[in-house]
Every structure is written in C-alpha cells, then in structure tokens.
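Lecture notes, continued. The same structure-token format from the folding unit now serves as the input rather than the output. Read the line below as a description of shape only.
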C-alpha cells in the first residue's frame, strides 16, 4: 500500500504528481527544482544557490517521511550544462558522508521544468 508524502516546507507539485510516495520502507521522491517553498518563486542566483535550494526541498520531504539524507540510497541529478557539474557536486557533497553516499547518476538534458538548471530526485530506504 502506498502512502503519499507532502509537506508545505517543499514546493507544491507543478503537475499531476506528489512530492513523494512511501511504499513499505522505500521512499520515492519526485524531482525537486530550486523553488523557494515560502514564496513559490524560483531561486535567483548561481548554480550553487539553485542546487542548495533543490537539496533543501529534498531534506524537507525526507523529514516529513521521518528520514534523513543518511537513508538515501539513490540520487538522480539532471542538469542543463555539464560544465556546471563541479559546482553542483560541491554543494551536493555537503549533504552526504563520502563513505556512505548513495549511488547516483548525473545526466545533461536539453531542458527542465520552468527552464531551471538543475533537478534532483532521490530514493530512500528506512
């Protein structure tokens, strides 16, 4: 049986999906883009600021499900410009212990929702 996870501390979905779905002990988190949930506006700034906001949105969803970044087993990062990979990775890395970091792929794409530069999704297990 699936349980829908939603929190006002992360942006409301901009389409027909939920922030996350919990099935037994596995949490599937929808891709998060750099929207500030308090304003509903995109974060203005550089790719580091955008990545940080996306990660903070993910943190809020994890917390709503009673989890932390330590529970994350898989991440997917979608970026518009692979030249920004190092900056994204720098911010992303501050959220994980290098020894227990999750599996991950990073993919360059043509466009993302609202034409942002980064979107990150995760799978976590309790």
């Amino acid at each position: 049986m699936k349980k829908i996870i939603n929190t006002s501390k992360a942006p409301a979905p901009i389409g027909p999906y939920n922030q996350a779905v919990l099935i037994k002990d596995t949490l599937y988190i929808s891709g998060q883009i750099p929207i500030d949930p308090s304003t509903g506006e995109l974060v203005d700034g550089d790719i580091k600021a955008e990545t940080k906001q996306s990660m903070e949105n993910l943190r809020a969803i994890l917390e709503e499900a009673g989890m932390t970044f330590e529970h994350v087993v898989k991440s997917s990062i979608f970026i518009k410009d692979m030249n920004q990979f190092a900056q994204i990775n720098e911010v992303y890395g501050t959220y994980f212990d290098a020894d227990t970091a999750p599996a991950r792929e990073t993919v360059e794409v043509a466009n993302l929702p609202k034409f942002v530069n980064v979107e990150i999704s995760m799978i976590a297990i309790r």
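Point for the exam: DSSP finds two helices and eight strands in the chain.
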